[in-house]
Design a protein that fits this description.
Helices cover 52% and strands 12% of the residues. With 1013 residues, it is of the alpha/beta class. The strands form six sheets. Strands 1, 2, 3, 4, 5 and 6 form a six-stranded parallel sheet that branches. Strands 13-10-19-8-9-14 form a six-stranded antiparallel sheet, covered by helices on one side. Strands 22-21-20-23-24 form a five-stranded parallel sheet, sandwiched between helices. The structure holds flavin-adenine dinucleotide, NADP nicotinamide-adenine-dinucleotide phosphate (NAP) and flavin mononucleotide. The site of flavin-adenine dinucleotide (FAD) has 20 residues, from strand 13, strand 14 and helix 26. The site of flavin mononucleotide (FMN) has 23 residues, from helix 15 and strand 4.
Length: 1013
């Protein structure tokens, strides 16, 4: 035999022997397994029979408990005590015996054995479960954070929701396995996860749309919060586990039972508020979805199902609390039983539970009561549940899609028209331009820069033949409108932005009577060019003091051909009218869901909720309405409104905005002339489903409400309205004239200027004077601009009148060339706001608009106030405030007032108050110019000239602040001129130097104007 074979044979022999041993071992193992199996069966059946017998014995004990001797009673008590603890012992035994899978596990896993038979494997499983939970929670936290703050794509939302579904499903399986292995995880807790899985599934299937977007952020915020609390919980739980284990090794780890308890209680006290807050968030989600589900527009079952699921989760959330209680029970155990390390560690996940501080029932009842209280609080003034879902009801933007690029791509648009607008003209022009695009074979959308990420401008080049148009109005001292402020800041701050791929043009809206004519439009035009963007058509300048409409149509007429040439496209020549909204008449509608004049939220005038702003005005009660002038045919009024309890704060110099109502006689006449029932309930729905603006005004509503509260029916209509309405004139001559007026031909412009503007014809007058023109009322409602809030300079000081706001206004009423009497909407409506009207209190929907028109910070600075007529308004507040400061013992500088009116005996308004203030030395110099009491006109600026030395000293030497309020068209300019002249004369300056001098005062905030025209 060769040497090699001998070695192999020896090796083989060894292997054979080892194999024999292995076979024997395995045989033994199978035998033991068989025995174990038998033992398991026998234990299980013994436990069952023990349970049965225990039941019988407890019955016997109960029956026997009547009248035994003292000793017997003691024995019985002992038995009772033992009977009580026995089920717990059985439970712990069963944790190490194979169990039948419950229904859920059988459905998911089949009949596989999931019982872990050693303490180590149980502990390892629980440990792994905690780690899994923590990792996934952190991942979810990150994902929801990104989705909430940075990206808003339905696709990413879907991924997050899918992750949530998977996470919750996995948790339910793992938790069921843990329960099978003796864990005391509560059924409620697992149920909570079942519902969460279901709910995330609902969110996953919710189709993209306004309703989804409205709830999306709320859901994301909730997920974010839940994940955050989960992380806190995990940290707390791992701390508990670590300490429990350490307790078992107390001799070599410096940890006491008291130390453990103190840590645990601290943790619990810290966690509880977070848990309860999350708990009520569920309820809030449920209520929001409930209200959403009530909306007439809500056709999606997800809102209804979401309501139920969040509602169900609200009480179930208490289970989290139970889990905390379980650990508290464990702590007590750690305290009372001298556990060795292994017992402490291994029994943790499956330990027996002692009585919790609050039982499930307590928590359920507590939640139910709290929930009912919240519900009662939210609905106490409402007879029926009312949809209050603010964002959906407003005609204003309803969604928060911030990427205009994505939106344009999705909807196939290539032109975007941004508007910076305060009173709607810029927005109207933007809408018209975006509509025009269709006529030139392109697709446009109007956009509020406040709603979009303007940082995306550089990406517009991703869209073929793209163009950004900016319709920018200017306010204040050359400032942007509120909605363009962020865009303005962005332009200023981003020097490195590369806009080389951006095609743009700007149309500026302004008024020549203002110092900084069209400053915002000019700035945007210049800045975009600086940043590398390509101007494809010259800046347009619109002057509201002249004819803004004409400026716009002239610019537009040249602009579109330039665009066509630039992109090499042909105008389609399709001049037909394009409807933006479709009419829905609602016959069977719950009148509680119909808007009756609310600006934003439905029923917001019945259930008022701060904060109050332009979308949520406060209904202030009129407490005083008096005529100020003693004579003359005008009506100057002083109005006081009460703001008690509204939490509205204002400062002297701020403006109050009021939402007026159109004259009902005008509305009725419109109804008559168009032969329509004004009380029909309608909804005008945007045909472009992707548009942020779903309705032109709050819908559903009646024609009467629309014409009374939402639409401007008194100003002369713009040319686009005439153009669109022309199709409804049956007389071809009328049709031709209307189209001509909308054209940019000199003849058309002259016709519009003469027939509409100079004659002050509003829509009713046009319909009366053009009998062949009878448009459908819904199209008219679509075309008319929104009725705007009117601003008034507040005529009171919040230091003296913290709960009331004063207005000083002159009622507008004039005769037109056509022999009609036109009445100002707001002033005539305010005039009729009596303190009590048929036993009811009169109210005014209002909000505050902050201004820069402020008294100097140092009261010792002198002030020069110039305010003829109603221009006195803010100075009444200033005077009250200076008087109040004096009363407080403060040193107050000179207070000089220049007031002007027509006649001393007629319209010297606030005469007594002003003279009193002069007597009390609050006004140090009162100058009143009565313009018509002598042959030659005397105006404020004439009196200023008379006092020029004093004025110059105050400005040049004493650091005085100058304030001008009232008419922008003439007065403010003439007064400014007077200051130039004073500076020239007394400062020895040239006109240019004097102009610079006054301009510098303006820049420093020492020359402020609050003017209107
Ligand atoms: C910041 C700011 C502060 C203001 N503060 C005050 C204030 O303190 N007190 C105050 O009284 N007003 C103030 N106003 C003006 C006020 O906002 C309203 O414009 C004014 O009260 C008229 O509103 P109305 O709705 O009654 O008139 P509207 O219905 O708006 O009618 C006014 C329009 O009628 C036209 N019109 C008016 N008179 C004539 C005429 N004789 N001939 C032809 N057309 C005419 C003009 O087009 C005018 O714009 C302020 C305006 C601003 C912007
Ligand atoms: N847009 C609107 O609807 C609206 C509504 C209300 C008021 N306003 C504007 O607000 C201004 C104030 O209105 P009001 O009714 O309160 O004032 P007002 O009584 O018409 O005028 C106040 C005083 O100022 C004088 N005045 C006129 N032109 C002046 C000038 N260039 N410089 C200095 N003083 C001059 C008037 O004199 P004479 O009249 O004798 O010339 C009068 O004595 C009005 O001028 C009007 O333009 C506009
Ligand atoms: C209180 C007030 C301040 C204004 N300030 C300026 C200004 O500083 N410069 C300017 O060119 N136009 C100014 N305007 C005119 C507006 O810009 C102009 O009326 C414009 O058409 C308004 O557009 P909107 O309706 O879109 O807000 C002012 C108008 C008001 C009522």
């Amino acid at each position: 035999m060769s040497k090699g074979l001998t070695v192999i044979l020896e090796e083989w022999k060894c292997l054979e022997e080892e194999y024999q041993q292995l076979q024997e071992k395995h045989q033994m193992y199978l035998q033991k397994l068989n025995e174990i199996s038998k033992l398991q069966n026998s234990c299980s059946s013994s436990i069952s029979s023990q349970r049965r017998k225990l039941k019988e014995v407890s019955h016997l004990v109960k029956r026997c408990s009547t009248g035994p001797s003292e000793e017997d009673a003691k024995t019985l008590d002992e038995i009772k005590e033992k009977i009580k603890t026995r089920p717990n012992a059985f439970f712990e035994m069963e944790a190490f015996l194979p169990q039948k899978n419950g229904l859920y596990l059988s459905l998911v896993l089949g009949n596989v054995n999931v019982t872990l038979l050693s303490k180590q494997s149980k502990f390892a499983y629980k440990d792994e479960y905690e780690k899994f939970k923590l990792c996934l929670t952190v991942l979810l936290l990150l994902c929801s954070f990104i989705c909430y703050f940075f990206v808003s794509y339905r696709f990413l939302d879907a991924i997050l929701n899918f992750l949530l579904v998977w996470y919750y499903c996995t948790l339910t399986i793992r938790e069921s396995i843990l329960i099978t292995n003796g864990s005391r995880i509560k059924g409620w807790w697992v149920f909570h996860h079942y519902v969460s899985a279901f709910l995330s599934g609902v969110m996953l299937t919710w189709p993209d749309g306004i309703l989804y977007k409205t709830f999306r952020n709320q859901f994301l915020a909730y997920t974010l919060y839940q994940s955050f609390v989960q992380c806190l919980q995990c940290y707390y739980q791992s701390g508990c586990l670590y300490r429990l284990r350490a307790l078992g090794e107390r001799h070599n780890m410096d940890l006491t039972v008291e130390g453990f308890q103190s840590w645990m209680w601290k943790g619990l006290t810290f966690l509880l508020p977070f848990l309860f807050f999350g708990h009520f968030w569920q309820l809030f989600n449920s209520l929001c979805l409930f209200r959403m589900a009530q909306l007439p527009d809500c056709k999606e079952w997800q809102a209804r199902l979401g309501t139920t699921l969040h509602g169900v989760k609200f009480p179930s959330a208490s289970s989290k609390q139970c889990e905390r209680d379980t650990q508290r029970g464990e702590a007590k155990r750690a305290d009372t039983t001298e556990m060795d390390a292994e017992t402490a560690a291994n029994s943790e996940p499956m330990v027996g539970e002692e009585e919790p501080l609050f039982g499930n029932l307590d928590l359920f009842l507590f939640s139910l009561i709290a929930g009912l209280l919240v519900y009662w609080f939210m609905s106490r003034k409402k007879p029926e549940p009312i949809p209050e879902f603010k964002k959906l009801e407003t005609p204003a933007p309803t969604t928060k899609e911030t990427s205009f690029i994505e939106k344009m791509k999705k909807t196939g648009k290539n032109i975007i028209v941004f508007y910076g607008s305060q009173t709607g003209t810029g927005e109207e022009f933007a809408n018209r331009l975006s509509k025009d695009a269709q006529r030139y074979g392109m697709k446009g959308m109007a956009a509020d820069p406040e709603e979009y990420d303007m940082g995306e401008l550089s990406r517009l080049s991703e869209i073929e033949n793209s163009l950004a148009i900016f319709c920018m109005a200017t306010y204040g001292e050359g400032d942007p409108t509120d909605n363009a402020q962020d865009f303005y800041d962005w332009l200023q701050e981003n020097d490195d932005e590369d806009l080389s791929g951006l095609n743009y043009t700007v149309f500026a809206l302004g008024n020549k009577t203002y110092e900084h004519y069209n400053a915002m439009g000019k700035y945007v035009d210049k800045r975009l060019e600086e940043l590398g963007a390509k101007r494809i058509f010259d800046l347009g300048l619109g002057d509201d003091d002249g004819n803004l409409e004409e400026d716009f149509i002239s610019w537009r007429e040249q602009f579109w051909p330039a665009v066509c040439e630039h992109f090499g496209v042909e105008a389609s020549g399709d001049d037909s009218s394009i409807r933006q909204y479709e009419l829905k008449e609602l016959t069977d509608v719950n009148m509680n869901k119909v808007f009756t004049g609310e600006i934003g939220r439905l029923k917001s005038f019945e259930v008022q909720k701060p904060p109050y702003d332009s979308k949520n005005p406060f209904l202030a009660t009129v407490t005083l309405n008096r005529r100020l002038n003693k004579g003359g045919d005008r009506h100057l009024m002083h109005l006081e409104v009460d703001i008690t309890g509204s939490r509205i704060r204002y400062e002297s110099g701020d403006h109050v905005a009021v939402f007026p109502t159109n004259d009902s006689a005008l509305v009725n006449k419109l109804g008559q002339i168009l032969a329509v029932d004004l009380d029909v309930v309608i909804s005008l729905n945007n045909l472009d489903e992707e548009s942020n603006k779903r309705h032109p005004f709050p819908c559903p509503t009646t024609y009467r409400t629309a014409l009374t509260h939402y639409l401007d029916i008194t100003h002369p209509p713009r040319t686009n309205v005439l153009y669109e309405l022309a199709q409804y004139a049956s007389d071809p001559k009328d049709q031709e004239n209307m189209r001509k007026m909308a054209s940019s031909s000199p003849e058309g412009k002259a016709l519009y200027q003469g027939w509409v503007l100079d004659a002050c014809r509003n829509i009713l007058a046009i319909l009366e004077d053009m009998p062949s023109l009878r448009p459908p009322i819904d199209h008219l409602c679509e075309l008319l601009p929104r009725l705007q809030a009117r601003y008034y300079s507040i005529a009171s000081s919040s230091k003296v009148h913290p709960n009331s706001i004063h207005i000083c206004a002159v009622v507008v009423e004039y005769n037109t060339k056509t022999g009609r009497v036109n009445k100002g909407v707001a002033t005539n409506w305010l005039k009729n706001k009596l303190v009590t009207d048929n036993g009811h209190k009169s109210t005014v929907p209002m909000y505050i608009r902050k201004s820069q028109f402020r008294l100097p910070f140092k009261a010792t600075n002198p002030v020069i106030m110039i305010g003829p007529g109603t221009g006195i308004a803010p100075f009444m507040g200033f005077i009250q405030e200076r008087g109040w400061l004096k009363q407080q013992g403060k040193e107050v500088g000179e207070t000089v007032l220049y007031f002007g009116c027509r006649h001393k005996d007629e319209d010297f308004i606030y005469q007594e108050e002003l003279q009193d203030a002069e007597k009390n030395e609050v006004i140090t110099q009162l100058n009143v110019a009565f313009s018509r009491d002598q042959e030659q006109k005397v105006y404020v600026q004439h009196m200023m000239k008379t006092n020029k030395e004093h004025i110059w000293k105050l400005i040049h030497s004493d650091n005085a602040h100058i304030y001008v309020c009232g008419d922008a068209r003439n007065m403010a300019k003439d007064v400014q001129l007077a200051f130039y002249e004073i500076a020239e004369e007394l400062g020895g300056m040239t006109r240019t130097q004097a102009t610079d001098y006054i301009k510098k005062l303006m820049t420093k905030g020492r020359y402020s104007q609050d003017v209107w025209s």
